Amino acid sequence: MPARPKGKSRRRAIPVGNLPFVATPTPPTDIQLAHQKLVGRLVMAWSSLAASMQGLIWAFLNLSLSDGRILTSRLDASSIIPILQALGRRHLTEDRLQGFLDELSTINGYREGRNFIVPQFHRPWAMVHNRSRRYPSGNVASSRNRTR
């Protein structure tokens, strides 16, 4: 095998014309618009809370924004909450610790509720239109149901 030139990627481009299906976003039709808006507000509020929890980790560890993002950008709340509990035990005084742990417990309960509601909207994210095989119309491509 010939040596690979420096700086050249080993990845091969996937020709777009050969993809087995085309994913077209389709909005859920059986969910009322008011309900969709409430779920959107939930997602936005949760995103803000998650960013605040990441910021707390950075503050406890005295990290800059750019360094903190390296550590926490891929963590979800199920990972962040135990980290915050451990950091709180190390850095907070006794009079503040119990309230902090209680708030984290409340957030963990919200996390479970959020995870119950939001995945219902994430699963059917695209309709599959296969070019090479025949499938019943309406096959759904999602992280839990991949059609090839």
Could you write a compact summary of the structure shown?
With 148 residues, the chain is mainly alpha-helical. Helices cover 54% and strands 8% of the residues.
Describe how the helices and strands are arranged.
Layout: E1 21-25, H1 33-61, H2 65-72, H3 77-91, H4 94-117, H5 119-122, E2 126-130, E3 140-141
Antiparallel strand pairs: 1-2, 2-3
Structure description:
The protein is mainly α and 148 residues long. It has a domain at 32-117. The chain has five helices and three strands, in the order βαααααββ. The chain has a three-stranded antiparallel beta sheet, with no helix packed on it. Helix 1 packs across helix 2 and helix 1 runs parallel beside helix 3. It is flat, with a radius of gyration of 22 Å. Residues 123-148 have low confidence and may be disordered.
Strand share of the residues? Answer: 5-15%
The general outline is flat
Mean pLDDT metric: 75
Report the helical percentage. 40-55%
Biggest β-sheet, characterized? 3 strands, antiparallel
Low-confidence runs of at least 5 consecutive residues? 123-148
Helical stretch count? Answer: 5
Strand order of the largest sheet: 1-2-3
Structural class: mainly alpha
Order of helices and strands: EHHHHHEE
Tally the beta strands.
Answer: 3
Radius of gyration: 22 Å
Distance between the termini: 32 Å
